[in-house]
Design a protein that fits this description.
This protein is of the alpha+beta class. It contains 2 helices and 5 strands; from the N terminus they run E-E-H-E-E-H-E.
Length: about 120
């Protein structure tokens, strides 16, 4: 009885993140389906975090399917709308304070599908 050869790599440390379609390194992907800056499932998740911030709340927005330049522009609009400060880190936007509902309304007005995630 021959064992079937499974061509799908489950985990590998030598090549880094693999594209699920063409099974190549994400940087060498030829199908264009999986990019490190992709939005995942297309839903913007808005959470409230307090860890590592001295108990102060921060609204974290992740999953926006935009470039880093557009991310900064959206962050600026949200900060102005909320009247608070904030920053962009990697592919997330951090807004000072618990501004989840205001950010959700603003992002939905821009045409994004949003979810309030976490507690």
């Amino acid at each position: 009885m021959k064992a079937k050869k499974n061509s799908r790599a489950v985990y590998s440390t030598d090549r880094g993140r693999l594209c699920p379609q063409c099974l190549r390194n994400a940087a060498e992907c030829v199908c264009g389906k999986d990019r490190p800056s992709s939005a995942g499932d297309g839903i913007v998740r808005i959470t409230r975090e307090t860890k590592g911030r001295g108990g102060k709340a921060v609204t974290v927005i992740s999953g926006l399917p935009v470039s880093p330049e557009e991310l900064k522009i959206i962050a600026k609009k949200l900060k102005q709308r909320c009247g608070v400060g904030g920053s962009t880190k990697e592919a997330t936007i951090e807004i000072q304070g618990d501004q989840r509902t205001v950010c959700k309304d603003a992002l939905e007005a821009l045409g994004y599908t949003c979810k309030l995630a976490g507690g």
